[in-house]
Amino acid sequence: MFTKILIANRGEIACRVAATARRMGVKTVAVYSDADASAKHVAACDEAVHIGGNAPKDSYLRWQTIIEAAKSTGAQAIHPGYGFLSENEEFADACAAAGLVFIGPPASAIQAMGLKAESKRLMAKASVPLVPGYQGEDQDPQLLQREADAIGYPVLIKASAGGGGKGMRLVEKSEDFAAALQSCKREASNSFGNDAVLVEKYVLRPRHIEIQVFGDTQGNCVYLFERDCSVQRRHQKVLEESPAPGMTPALRQKMGAAAVAAAQAVGYVGAGTVEFIVEQPGGYEAPEQMKFYFMEMNTRLQVEHPVTEAITGEDLVEWQLRVASGQPLPKRQDELRIIGHAIEARICAENPDNNFLPATGRLHVYRKPACTSFERGQVRVDDGVREGDAISPFYDSMIAKLIVHGETRAQALARLDDALAQTHIVGLATNVQFLRHVVASGAFAQARLDTALIQREEAVLFQQEKVGLPLAAAAAVANTLLQERAAQGASPFSQRDGWRSVIACRRRFEFDFGGQHAKAWLTYGKDGSHELQVGEGEGAVNGSLAFAPAAGGAMDLQYAGERSLAVVYAQGETDHVFTPRGATRIEALDLLAHAGEATSEGGRLTAPMPGKVVSFAVQAGDKVSKGQALAIMEAMKMEHTIAAPQDGVVAELLYAPGDQVTEGAELLRLSVE
């Protein structure tokens, strides 16, 4: 076994590898960029080496610098994690040339599986089922169009060197193919340095089911069962679970055998995942009719590997270290068993209600449920951040992975919702409440799964306000009163209880909630009670308000006949309210501070995040309509389309393609009638 390894990655996966290495008595070396100088993964390792600037190309992709860091610190092996250099055959070869062990598959296997088209040709030879499509080397756009027309729409254009949902476009009709191809090639070139694509039939009602495989240097190869990753947004995974609902033992054995055959076809060593697209010709109620087709192989450890660890009881990083040091696989196929059910939710800095736009900012509040970290448990949270850390635009938007394990799927679902409800993040937009909506949806709860679940269920997943104005206002008022009580002294003249000798005290509050302005009136009773009216007219809610501090910074809140635990985090005038029902935000306005303010709207369009301007679709003088695409920005490794907020005429373009812009930067000016 190694005595010291270097972890060529950052964030959660670097912390994850370091945790297992420490348990095994293996020393670790971290690498870090300028932006990560104080990151959690740096503190998690025994040593750390600075490798460059903020952008990945200036740090985590500089494999020559990383190899020098490994040699200078006496590391014997390099663990690449996932992303960055984990599937770079040139890096794997360079490690070997430098006398370092690459904790991953041979470079030849990475190369064989790294190009989707080539890997599918190999799989055809190994008799692994394939989706109908074109994987040829000729990339003439007219030929690709003809192939797509011959396959029949819808088709999927995929970057041959792609991964992580990047460089992928769904095309529904022939006339949209050329534009989608151009966009896909541009993103593929920017992300992978290779704009080659393949075209394949888009399978209707598809499920995304992948098989975890593991090989050793003695020629042994096993599969550690499946993970269902069908719940996706923008071709990126949102929830993963194991075992796959509806999976029959016969189909599991066939898919496992096919995955092992795929791995053995390229002499695979280490952890890998063979991904299949699974067709459901008989619908959701007939899983026995499912058919599977090879999609791709990821030649590394997957983000969702804790799901497999939960249902097998195995530590996959430990398996990686043992196999890389020349040891045989810890278990044979007949020794592996499925234990219960596990689900993983990816908690990301993004705004689901705004097309999952990535978010940046500081984690002013980051509270987690009771959990284990980097090891098996009923509730497990793997992360690479701490409260107070910043989520920057330079890297992936994932904040943490929340993994739950139960005896049954129903128990795992209940644990997941409860754990999400106890996950409190303030400072930037996240998908936590969206994840709760998915978990609560009938489609997911009843396992009616396919990769279009989110689009199909959008009516119950997006723009959902589960708390409501009355409860949010009551929580904000109660939090204000609790803060006032905490600030008062022993003198009776410092009391903030609204006492009056003759008449009852009535106090007005004003709020902004969900884009609407609202008023509330609090009446202090002489016996210490409170009555609260939220809203005016027929929609007003009246009721007694009672509250008391509870454990964990929560309050026991009672209002208008409802009792709930609530946690309120105040940031300036914004109160972030968390309840078992859901979470929301309400602006508690300071009326004096806003006296004399006025608002106005102009014809300006600003960058919703830091990033790079890729292109403009308009010129000065062009007339545009609301919703029309105006510009394309690139941020967090994805392209985002900026649309016109209203009708108008383009007055001026303020940047050029290639320019870096900050969040809120005005990109162009619109003349609005």
List the helices and strands and how they pair.
Layout: E1 4-7, H1 11-23, E2 27-33, H2 40-44, E3 47-52, H3 63-73, E4 77-79, H4 89-97, E5 101-102, H5 107-114, H6 116-125, E6 133-134, H7 141-151, E7 155-163, E8 166-171, H8 177-192, E9 197-201, E10 207-215, E11 221-233, E12 236-242, H9 249-265, E13 270-279, E14 291-298, H10 305-312, H11 316-324, E15 341-348, E16 350-351, E17 357-358, E18 361-362, E19 365-367, E20 379-383, E21 390-391, E22 398-406, H12 409-421, E23 424-426, H13 432-440, H14 442-445, H15 453-456, H16 458-461, H17 469-487, E24 505-513, E25 516-524, E26 530-534, E27 541-549, E28 555-559, E29 562-571, E30 574-579, E31 582-588, E32 604-606, E33 611-616, E34 623-624, E35 629-635, E36 638-643, E37 648-653, E38 660-661, E39 666-671
Parallel strand pairs: 1-2, 1-4, 2-3, 4-5
Antiparallel strand pairs: 6-9, 7-8, 7-9, 10-11, 10-13, 11-12, 12-15, 13-14, 15-22, 16-17, 18-21, 19-23, 20-22, 24-25, 24-31, 25-26, 26-27, 27-28, 28-29, 29-30, 30-31, 32-39, 33-35, 33-38, 34-37, 35-36, 37-39
Helix pairs in contact: 4-5, 12-13
